[in-house]
Amino acid sequence: MSSMNTLIISCSLNPKSRSAILAQHASDILTHLNIDTTLLDLREWDIPFCDASSAYAHPSIQKLTDAITAADAVLLAIPIYNYDANAAAKNLIELTGKAWTEKIVGFLCSAGGHGSYMSVMPLANSLMLDFRSLILPRFVYALESNINHPDPTNLDAAPIASSIDPHIDDRIRELCSDLIRLTHGWIQPHPMPHAHKKSNRESL
């Protein structure tokens, strides 16, 4: 079975991000399964706004582009704001563009209510149509009540580890399982010729 490289990008810029907890949990699961996994936290990166001009030359963008290009699959951990993926996630995709071409992409979403469960679809459609990304049909959608995040400002409280509802834990494990299964099939050598070559089309 071919090896696979997985990149997990935590897209929230919130110091108390719950989607970052989902990203870390998925990273721990994949690492335990001996999958080469890299976790990037956008809170640790200096990323410019996409201006369709000089922003593409920023040093951070080249590093992020290289990381995405090198990955076979990418999991995006995103918060949902105003019924949409957060601006930092969309800005990242705009800046790194073609690095997403034919990547398998999955989503880990953190939201405030039940009504935003389809909010990830515009971003998924954009990846699929613009870059032919293969979108995992299973994604994780977690509410605030599903994730315990200790308050770092409460210095008097006893240390409490971040925790995830067992149902969400199951969903993340199912997502990781689907990611591995689909990615291994996607990166295997395929016997079919490249359809864009005229000589190959004529031989079919």
Automatic annotation (TrEMBL):
<dbReference type="InterPro" id="IPR029039">
    <property type="entry name" value="Flavoprotein-like_sf"/>
</dbReference>
<keyword id="KW-0560">Oxidoreductase</keyword>
<dbReference type="InterPro" id="IPR051814">
    <property type="entry name" value="NAD(P)H-dep_FMN_reductase"/>
</dbReference>
<keyword id="KW-0285">Flavoprotein</keyword>
<dbReference type="InterPro" id="IPR005025">
    <property type="entry name" value="FMN_Rdtase-like_dom"/>
</dbReference>
<protein>
    <submittedName>
        <fullName>NAD(P)H-dependent FAD/FMN reductase</fullName>
        <ecNumber>1.5.1.45</ecNumber>
    </submittedName>
</protein>
<dbReference type="Pfam" id="PF03358">
    <property type="entry name" value="FMN_red"/>
</dbReference>
<comment type="similarity">
    <text>Belongs to the SsuE family.</text>
</comment>
<dbReference type="GO" id="GO:0016491">
    <property type="term" value="F:oxidoreductase activity"/>
</dbReference>
<keyword id="KW-0288">FMN</keyword>
<feature type="domain" description="NADPH-dependent FMN reductase-like">
    <location>
        <begin position="4"/>
        <end position="142"/>
    </location>
</feature>
